[in-house]
Amino acid sequence: MKLVVIVLNKLECMEDLLSEFSARHLQGATILSSHGMMQELNEEDELRFVLSLRNVLNPAHKENRTIFMAATDDKVPSIIEAVNKVTGGLEHGDTGILFTLPIEHLEGFKVKKS
Question: What is the pTM of this model?
């Protein structure tokens, strides 16, 4: 089992991403509103210039969504494909990040057989 963590900056992709997960029978996502360090540190004098440039380039980006999904190892490639399909690819700047962590113990989660 893996914990898949997706930090989605392109909030306009959220609905389509959830639809894509559903179409692929990927379930069990928990979604939190979140924001990054740069948004939190916007009061610091040294960062004002950097933040002002960021606000000019992407004024609407004030928050993101963090998605947590427990998934069997065989489902992880499908999750990654879904995210890259809907977002246009995480390699593009300010789209988001995705990483996995091993789950050593899990209770309250039933794996559905496909």
Answer: 0.79
